[in-house]
Structure formats: C-alpha cells, structure tokens
Design brief:
The protein has about 500 residues and is of the alpha+beta class. The chain contains 15 helices and 18 strands.
C-alpha cells in the first residue's frame, strides 16, 4: 500500500528569532505611545496574599508577571504572580476597551510585568479571580521564560540564573521565603531573651576567631592589608569586656577554602554570647531555638528529607531531650582501645578503619578525622558531642577535672556540624599560650588588642555559633548548600 507523504512540520523558532519577535513587539509598543518599561504603580495587594485572604467584590490594584494566558475571541483569562504566589485574572474587551485589549493580546508576552485594576469575583469553577477594568504595561520581557511545565531543570543554570529558578520553580521560591522568615524568627527568639543584636567589622587587620584561610584585600588610604573576617568572635568578646552581657550577631563570614555541597566561601553565621552562662546552658538555648523553628515552620519535630521524585529518604527526629555524649566515648565506640594506642599505632588503626590520614597529621587530627568520618557523617538525629580535645578549640575554657579537654559541645545533625558552643576562655595568660600554639601551626598573627581587652577582665560566658545555611538545609531537606544560598559562588563560566 502506498503511503501518503507526511506534511512538513516547520522547525521551532530559534532563540535569535524569538528574541527578535519580542524586540519587534517592544518597538510596536513605543510606536503606540506605550511606555514598555513603566514607572510607579500603586498597589493594594500582592497576587499570592490576595488569593490567600480572598473576598468577593473587593476593589484591587496589583502588579505581577504574566505567567500564563488563555485568550479566545473577545475575552479570556491570564495569571499574574510574584514571590507571594499567583492569581487568575479575567479580561473582557468590552470592559477594558479595544485599545487595551489588543495591546494585551498582540504585544504582551508571557513574562511581561503588568499592573491590573479591577474587582474580585469567584468563577463557576470556584477559582478566585480579578475582573480586570484596566491594565498597564510595567516591564517588557525581552527573553522567553523557561518552559512552564518543566521549569528550570538544569542544576547549574538554576544557580547561575537564580532569577529564572525563582520564576519557574515554586519549591525553590518557598525555600528562600522560609529562610527569610526563619532568620527573622531567630532574631525575635534571641531578642525575647534580652539578647542585643550588634554589628562588628567584616574587614579586620588580623583574621581571628577560627582556624581558616582568609580572603586578603588592601586598604589604599590606610596603606595596610586587611582580611575579610573568618569569624566575628574576637570582636564580640571585646563587647563582653565592655559590659554587654547578652549579645548576638547575624552576618556573613568568609573563608578562602574549598567549595562543596556543604561549603560556600561566604556564608551566614549566628554567634551569640551570654555572660555568666556555660556551654551546657548554651546547648539548652540552641536546642530550644532549633525546635522552635521546626515547630513553627516545619509542622513539628520530624523533618522529612525527600528525593527529586518526592520519596522520603530520611526522617530526622528532633524530639527533646537531645543526646549529649562525650567525644572520647564516641571514639571508644568505634575502637574501645583507641586511646591506649601510641600515636603511630593510631595512624595505622585509622587506615584499617578506612579513614584516610595525611602524612603530617598531628595525633589529635588523626582522632578528629576518625570522628568526622565514622561518627559525625553517620549521625542524623541531633547529638551534642561534648568535652572535645583542647587542641581543637583554642578559645574554649579547659575542663576543671581534665585539662586535656575543654568545656564545649559540637551539635551534629544530618551528618554535619550545625553549631559549636563553648564555655569561653577568659584567662588572658592561657589565651595567649593557646593562640601562640595555633599561630605556629596555621601561620597566623596573634590579635594583640584582643589579648589586651581580656586583660581588662572578661566575665565568664557561654558562646555559640550556628551555621545558618546548614541549619536551613537540615530544616528544609535541601541536599546542597547551593539550594539555600540565593547566589552561590561558582567557577566563572567558560566563554
């Protein structure tokens, strides 16, 4: 049987052709005297908030991006939206007039920003809708949006062009709305407990407060090198000396180190200090804060992590009280005889346990690597790891009963450290010794002004740090820090 030739299907338009179509529409708008990049437009509502608290026969003015359109003949529907959500609009040629209707149908594209004025009603299908009386072009989009059904699926493009990710992926948008709300709630939680928010320098002449490689810069007027801070700790402790007894800072830290799914070179950190408290009280504070956030934003203390198919892969249980276990006890659970071995034998034993050890590792670093690989990375429910070796935490107070360890906790959740907390070292003589030892290992300068401040007397205090990005990852189920940082650092794209 002879087959009929198939009709030729025209190829889809190229990107350059699509861009040219939009620029042609831009010019036609100008020819009609329509400003394609408008100005002030007073609104009464936002699309999502209007839908969430919808009332019929309400006069409204709102702006949003055109996300879909279904125009047939002399009437039709379109959706507009922003970060709050979207709402349906109905437009009738008779209502808005021939000129406005033709402008919308002929020259307005998906992705354009428009302002609408009208009155709310509910359709026969029960959909909250705005009956449009007037429409204003606010900004012409010269590039087409990602496919409305599939959104932005390329992971690297999501990070490089976050604005497109926010337009097309509701889940991404919600993560960042939740992040903002959580940070605001952290502030309220601490302020309700009489903590004062402060700001300390982000450019410092001595990079201190942590063992990390800093970013370097140079101040021309002062003719001196400066460093982006790796931690605010030493300046916050100066404020304890000054008599500020409950303080916190929520701000950015910078570390010139590796990038991974858990590390970004600039990150958000909370640090808080409480005079006359100790690390146990700080652990109570952090436990209460995180449980408060989970109950307020996650619906409870069981946090489900899902894969891209929506299947639950892990459930983190934040039910209180959280476990508190000494560091050495956790190491002994891996190898009961670990601390009876010689340093060289510990290196051999670490290799037998499958932990890679560098040739120049100090003895405490060998033990720490075993802890990180065989304890920390396998611990998903919250656990405070207490009384760590003093070499790991040079700014913490030594334990009264065992001077080889310090009074600290490291909070581990979801296989990573979320928060360290200390009973702060306030003895300036011991502090100098510790910093000299650290400076020798890390090739760092000692902050002499900090030591001088301690010599004026710092009250005993507890201190905490919380990596906000990692905390948001845990609470939202994100698998990469890049999914909770709006603009993560990426390698420059090859041209």
């Amino acid at each position: 049987m002879e087959t009929q030739p198939q009709a030729n299907t025209p190829p889809p338009p190229s990107e350059s052709e699509l861009l040219q179509v939009r620029r042609d529409k831009l010019q036609k708008m100008k020819d009609k005297g329509v400003a394609p990049f408008g100005g002030k437009f007073e609104t009464t509502h936002e699309p999502g908030t209007l839908r969430a608290s919808f009332e019929n026969t309400l006069p409204v003015k709102l702006g949003g991006r055109v996300l879909s359109r279904r125009i047939q003949g002399k009437a039709g529907f379109f959706d507009i939206g922003d970060f709050t959500g979207k709402i349906q609009c109905y437009m009738n040629k008779k209502e808005v007039g021939d000129e406005a209707f033709e402008l919308f149908t002929d020259l307005v594209d998906m992705g354009d920003w428009v302002g609408v004025e009208g009155e709310t009603f509910t359709t026969k299908m029960g959909e909250p809708t705005v009956n449009v009386k007037a429409i204003t072009v606010l900004s012409k989009s010269l590039r087409p949006l990602p496919d409305k059904w599939h959104g932005l699926t390329d992971r690297e493009q999501k990070y490089r062009q976050r604005y497109l990710d926010l337009i097309s992926n509701e889940n991404s948008r919600q993560v960042f709305v939740t992040r903002s709300q959580m940070i605001a709630e952290i502030r309220r939680f601490l302020q309700d407990r009489q903590f004062l928010e402060v700001e300390t320098p982000m450019m410092q002449d001595v990079a201190g407060g942590a063992a990390a490689r800093p970013f370097e810069t140079f101040h021309n007027a002062l003719n001196m090198p400066l460093y982006l801070r790796i931690a605010p700790e030493l300046f916050l402790k100066r404020l304890l000396v000054g008599g500020f007894t409950r303080i916190f800072e929520l701000n950015r830290n910078f570390r010139n180190e590796g990038i991974s799914r858990r590390h970004n070179p600039e990150f958000t950190m909370l640090e808080a200090y409480w005079a006359f408290a100790d690390f146990e009280q700080m652990a109570d504070l952090v436990e209460g804060l995180i449980c408060h956030l989970a109950e307020k934003f996650c619906g409870g203390l069981l946090i489900e992590h899902k894969n891209e198919a929506g299947e639950v892969t892990r459930t983190i249980n934040l039910q209180r009280p959280w476990k508190r276990v000494a560091y050495r006890d956790l190491i002994r659970a891996v190898d009961p005889g670990w601390f009876e071995l010689t340093p060289e034998a510990r290196k051999t034993r670490a290799a037998e346990l499958g932990v890679e050890i560098g040739p120049n590792f100090e003895d405490y670093e060998v033990t720490q690597h075993v802890f990180e690989k065989l304890v920390e990375e396998k611990q998903f429910d919250p656990m405070f790891v207490t009384h760590c070796p003093k070499e790991l935490v040079p700014l913490a107070k030594q334990n009264a009963a065992d001077d080889s360890v310090v009074d600290v906790y490291e909070l581990v959740i979801n296989g990573q450290e979320i928060s360290p907390g200390y009973s702060e070292l306030n003895d300036p003589i011991i502090q100098r010794q510790r910093l000299e030892e650290q400076a020798g290992e890390e090739i760092q300068k000692i902050d002499e002004d900090f030591i001088t401040a301690l010599e004026f007397g710092m009250p005993p205090a507890g201190g905490i740090g919380i990596g906000i990005d990692r905390l948001i990852m845990m609470l939202t189920g994100a698998e990469s820090i890049r999914d909770v940082v709006l603009f993560p650092q990426l390698k420059r794209k090859a041209e």
